[in-house]
Amino acid sequence: MAGSRGSTPRAIRVAVRLDQVKIARFSVSGGDPRFGIVDEEELVVLAGDPIFSGFDTTGERVALDDAKLLAPVIPRSKVVCVGMNYAAHKAELHADTPNNPLIFLKPNTAVVGPGDTIQIPPVDGRIVHEGELAIVIGKIAKLVSAENWEEYVFGYTIANDISARDVMFADGQWARAKGYDTFCPLGPWIETELDTSNLEIQTFVDGEPRRHGNTSDMLYKIPEIIEFASSVWTLLPGDVICTGTPAGLGGFTDGQRVDITIEGIGTLSNPARNR
């Protein structure tokens, strides 16, 4: 598995495949959030947050149909994002290639989960989706070298780095435009074993294709991103890094649904409503 996991999971003894472990955060009937290993149509309930507690299981199973999937992680401190990390997207913005990864922050209060409503704020201009592969950090990372990046990764999920695009240009910086509540859907779960070098990323609005790309087209790859980001900020367990969006048409409006599919992970879906 990517990164450090602690003790060998008891999940082995409940016949869960460990070659591709999907970790979901969920609740049942509005109860407290819990964690589980996705095993086909069921969740094998874990004793605690696996980033901190490992993979010990409780022996309980919950049907996926009976569970409400939540954001698979609430970042302990921050969401780090990489801007213009795909050549085609950079070109459509008529931007120069940055000398380093173009990183910025979203607050953890922007995070919502699969199926949660994107709340469109009352601002002028376009609200834009940006489907992205997201890295979940598994342990404290500071001044990490590109050669050692894997030991700091817990797994991967899907992110929607939503932007109020015209607010970005009006403000001259991105904090407000990308930091509104609900502007960072994550999910549906964390994939702990994934070769991220050649994954298709597709974004749809009401079923219509809007963005398409492949992680092989990233300008800065994951080892470089982690090395650079950890030279600026200490990354904490549970922090998330969004690795950039491919090119495409990005707008959506009240009443529409945004679906982001990444090969090997699944699909993150969220409806949008005016706030």
Tell me about this structure.
With 275 residues, the chain is mainly beta. It has helices spanning 50-53, 87-92, 165-171, 175-179, 222-232, and strands at residues 22-27, 34-39, 42-46, 57-63, 68-69, 79-83, 102-106, 111-112, 118-120, 127-128, 131-137, 153-160, 163-164, 184-191, 200-205, 208-214, 240-242, 251-252, 257-262, 266-274. The protein folds into 2 domains: 10-69, no CATH class; 79-274, Fumarylacetoacetate hydrolase, domain 2 (Alpha-Beta Complex). Helices cover 12% and strands 37% of the residues. Strands 1, 2, 3, 4, 5, 6, 7, 8, 11, 12, 14 and 17 form a 12-stranded mixed β-sheet that branches. A hairpin with a 6-residue loop joins strand 1 and strand 2 (34-39). It is globular, with a radius of gyration of 18 Å. The N and C termini lie far apart (40 Å). The model is unreliable at 3-13 (pLDDT under 50).
Summing up helix and strand content along with how strands pair, one would put the structural category as mainly beta
Distance between the termini: 40 Å
Strand content bin: 35-45%
Helix content: 10-25%
**Large-scale geometry:** globular
Point out poorly predicted stretches: 3-13
CATH class of the largest domain: Alpha Beta
* Count of individual beta strands: 20
Number of domains: 2
Q: pLDDT average, as an integer?
A: 92
CATH architecture of the largest domain: Alpha-Beta Complex
Radius of gyration: 18 Å
CATH homologous group name of the largest domain: Fumarylacetoacetase-like, C-terminal domain
What is the name of the CATH topology of the largest domain?
A: Fumarylacetoacetate hydrolase, domain 2
Helix count equals: 5
